[in-house]
């Protein structure tokens, strides 16, 4: 009875605080930047911690991930885990992580990594996502934040140098390297330091792709990307945000990725994308996992860094998706020993590549779920760390 009363009281407290924060935001409006915004972020993190503590207790999730405790609190320790670290991104996690928990339930496993995305900018949702990463940590997992340096959303009052530029992303990496966005970077670094727990930070992913993202070679030289990366990492380290695990994640389909490598001292993990579009578009075909990742892996493994597949998935059109998942997961420990982590790309509304929305989800695909479950049991489970 006492537990029920405590949960009711906690729920009422969360509702009251939530309403109070909403009223405060409405009252202060644009003035919410600065101390008031920081207060709201701090309170929200506290609310998240309270909510997720009960969720984790109810789902026994933290207990199921107890084996991860010896690794996840040390940035260098995560790469030494004695089993493959699985994770997921799901596009329905803005309010809660119930969709990922549901995916875990269908796979009969718990995922040590939860992935989210955050863009650069001056909007309230472009600050360090303390609320969300705290919720992930409270659930017993390690956050992975893909930090996308779009430069269109910065306030002209705070960053007047680009206010009248027709293309604010042209030369953007050089501007970052020159320190023009240090106010924003430093705030992220200090908030990351306040979070305190290790987390993956995937900055400017697929920087060698000349089509998709504005921080790519259509707007920037490789040397400028390297200088920007090194500058951001240095700012974080100088301010004490040493809990960030820096993930350099080029696109495997473009062979010039070495030109964008920021250097051994500035990269902790190498990331990549391993997704199979099948025959969904005229430019795509059914690629096996080996065809997607094999040649790239041979080259990046020379860096002697742990490797994480940050986006892992397959569409169903054009081939056998269950067999694709099974083959990939089964061959990981032996053929690709430097790959220490795999993050499922469980996005039901992907509009980044084709003119239509793509659905990468597989939770309702019973054959794929069965194949993945079997592969997890017999493939990328307990393993010896690679010599890297």
From TrEMBL:
Keywords: Glycosidase, Hydrolase, Membrane, Transmembrane, Transmembrane helix
InterPro entries attached to this UniProt entry: GH (IPR017853), GH26_dom (IPR022790), Glyco_hydro_26 (IPR000805)
Transmembrane domains' residue ranges: 6-28
Domain GH26: 59-372
A Pfam family matched in the record: Glyco_hydro_26
UniProt-annotated catalytic positions: 206 (proton donor), 311 (nucleophile)
Family in the record: Belongs to the glycosyl hydrolase 26 family.
Protein name according to UniProt: GH26 domain-containing protein
Organism listed in the record: Nibrella saemangeumensis
Lineage of the organism: Bacteria, Pseudomonadati, Bacteroidota, Cytophagia, Cytophagales
């Amino acid at each position: 009875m006492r537990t029920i009363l405590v949960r009711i009281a906690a729920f009422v407290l969360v509702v009251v605080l939530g309403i109070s924060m909403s009223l405060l935001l409405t009252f202060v409006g644009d003035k919410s930047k600065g101390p008031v915004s920081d207060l709201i972020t701090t309170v929200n993190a506290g609310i998240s911690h309270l909510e997720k503590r009960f969720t984790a207790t109810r789902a026994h999730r933290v207990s199921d991930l107890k084996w991860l405790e010896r690794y996840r609190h040390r940035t260098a320790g995560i790469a030494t885990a004695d089993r493959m670290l699985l994770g997921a991104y799901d596009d329905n996690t803005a309010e809660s992580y119930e969709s990922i928990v549901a995916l875990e339930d269908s796979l009969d496993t718990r995922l040590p990594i939860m992935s989210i995305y955050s863009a650069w900018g001056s909007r309230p949702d472009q600050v360090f996502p303390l609320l969300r990463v705290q919720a992930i940590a409270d659930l017993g997992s390690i956050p992975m934040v893909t930090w996308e340096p779009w430069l269109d959303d910065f306030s002209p009052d705070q960053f007047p140098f680009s206010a009248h530029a027709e293309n604010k992303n042209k030369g953007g990496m050089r501007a970052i390297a020159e320190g023009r966005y240090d106010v924003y970077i430093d705030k992220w670094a200090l908030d990351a330091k306040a979070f305190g727990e290790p987390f993956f930070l995937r900055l400017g992913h697929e920087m060698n792709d000349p089509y998709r993202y504005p921080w790519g070679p259509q707007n920037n030289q490789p040397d400028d990307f390297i200088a920007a990366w090194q500058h951001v990492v240095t700012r974080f380290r100088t301010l004490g945000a040493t809990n960030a695990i820096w993930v350099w994640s080029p696109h495997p389909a473009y062979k010039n990725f070495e030109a964008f490598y920021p250097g051994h001292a500035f990269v902790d993990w190498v990331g990549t994308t391993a997704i199979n579009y099948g025959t969904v578009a005229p430019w795509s075909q059914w690629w096996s996992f080996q065809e997607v990742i094999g040649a790239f892996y041979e080259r990046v493994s020379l860096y002697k860094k742990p490797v994480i597949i940050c986006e892992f998935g397959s569409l169903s059109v054009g081939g056998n998706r269950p067999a694709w998942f099974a083959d990939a997961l089964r061959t990981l420990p032996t053929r690709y020993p430097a790959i220490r982590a795999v993050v499922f790309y469980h996005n039901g509304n992907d509009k980044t590549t084709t003119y239509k929305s793509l659905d990468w989800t597989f939770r309702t695909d019973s054959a794929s779920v069965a194949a993945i479950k079997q592969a997890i049991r017999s493939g990328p489970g307990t393993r010896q760390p690679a010599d890297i």
